[in-house]
Amino acid sequence: MFDVLARYLTEKENFTPEDLAAVKQVAIPRRLRKRQYLLHEGTVSKYNCFVVSGCLRLFRIGDDGSEHILRFAVENWWIADYESYNFGEPAKGNVDALVDSEVLMISKADMDALCQNIPAFKRMKDLLDARCFDASQNRIFSSISQSAEERYFEFIKKHPLIHRRVPLHMIASYLGVSRETLSRVRHQNVKLNS
């Protein structure tokens, strides 16, 4: 499993064999079955998880009991409830596997030590944090400025791997629209392209 993370790291930065050995020493492999939870709301998110294979989601439950998907993660992506992970507070979200998945988990303490001891790891993590922030800002802007149709086609363009693997109702939840609205958008697009 670690070879996938090692390849990912060496594509991002110049890691020495010793650096990779240090990361391997703290990376905890875990297999998840479809629908198995990696994190439950109310528990502390102690690990940042690198997705080796599969597809996971971070979601919260609204007051009305509906699911609101905040993030998906496929191969070579990282996932955690970052508010909980960074501050040690109980998670507001849940993380579960949408398909059988494999992850490598690195604890907050180990992640901090890697950043302190391996400059390449810190640069990689800083870049990931910046990209995550940018993605969040762009998602907020998209939510307040674009139509459901525009958001859906932007999602398809930016995330083709996720689009093909995730049920329509979950994409609708992620986009903040009803399944009916998303079905209508897709149906209208099929008519226009026929």
UniProtKB/TrEMBL annotation:
Residue intervals of the Cyclic nucleotide-binding domain: 11-133
Question: In this entry, which stretches build a coiled coil?
Answer: none
Q: Cite the SMART domains for this sequence.
A: cNMP (SM00100)
Q: Output the SUPFAM superfamilies linked to this UniProt entry.
A: cAMP-binding domain-like
Q: Which InterPro entries match?
A: cNMP-bd_dom, cNMP-bd_dom_sf, RmlC-like_jellyroll
Matching Pfam families: cNMP_binding
This protein's name: Crp/Fnr family transcriptional regulator
Species source reads Mucilaginibacter defluvii
